[in-house]
Amino acid sequence: MSSSSTPPNRKGIPLLRFPQLVRNEVFEYWDIFEIYQFSTLSKVTKSISKNMKKPKTSMSFEPLGEYDKITLTSNRGEEGYKYFKFSICPSTEIWDTLLNEYDYFRRYLSYIYHPVFAENSVETFGSLVEHVQDIFEPDIEQVDFKCSSIDEEELKLYLNWFNGYKQLGKIPEIRVNISGLAFKVFLENWKLDVGTLIATPETSELCPVDFKVDHLRRTDCVKWVDFNVLRRFDCVEASTDTYFSNENMNLFLKDWKEGRSYNRAYWMDFLISERVKWKKMLEGLDAELRDLRTVRRTFRFNDNRQVWDYHGGFDIKRIDGKVATVGYCYFQVTENEPLRPEMLEEYDRVVRVWNSEDNDDEEEVEDVIVVPEGVVDEKRYIESEKSERRRGRYEFMMIVW
């Protein structure tokens, strides 16, 4: 832990009286917290700190954390990443107690903690962010709203601070792990466009939103995502569970086809509330079924970090000529591998139903599972395979080429 105080029986070094070259030699050995401490001494030291040669850093926020509020991450090459965590703490006594009671402050050498002695408030948090950003000019990485219990009025204060502090620019990633009314407060009051939103509320409700989201990531059952939210988010990519029905998805696709909404959409992956029935979902969309065996198209997603092959699917053309392909994920996606037998079986079933004159109201499909040699627990294997295939028939995917 760095400190600006002088140890007993030692004299301070008149650093500012040294020649510039000598000072630079000293500064080169300082870590993030030593630079920060120096920058808080006076306007002169702050100006010097801003002009020092410093490591490139990224900044993350935990505004609702009890102590740790800001993390500067620095890549130290062979040493790996170092995480410098600024902890707002009301007194030295409390900090000493934390050091004695919680060994995680000392256990991980890559995590380095530094106290900022002040009362925990939005004002203190804001001043610290402004000062650290002014000195280190870090890249903004993410904001993490995480708290088991939070006063909604205090949350609003933090949200208003972020909305008003334009120097952060667009937030690359926000993680929200709060539930109930607090999550509703977040959705209604956050106003900044977001790169990636990862939201994991245990409970929530529908409410209006007023910001865009490039990438929506969510897994469990979602009660707060409806079409009004999706239209306002105007996502480029979205992967989420929904309560949408086949009829709902038909309206979603018609909005896209007619150019009314979702104009930025590139990749959508929705787990809907019932088994996908393509004739019902694609009614009135002039969809063209492509052959799973011969049509393979490659697409990139997740900021180009993942590459998949998509086989077959239904092509739909938008009024401006853009083409989207919709279909399953489980039965139509591969990663540089051959088609699995169940993919071919499902395709044959889809073709048969699509070309029939009956509505797609057949009963749930009964899969026949072939157990490969070497499987120890055949019953568990069959149950697992059937469960995956049932779930696969609830998953809708859309790619816009």
UniProtKB/TrEMBL annotation:
Name listed for the protein in its UniProt record: F-box associated domain-containing protein
Organism: Caenorhabditis nigoni
Lineage, highest ranks first: Eukaryota, Metazoa, Ecdysozoa, Nematoda, Chromadorea
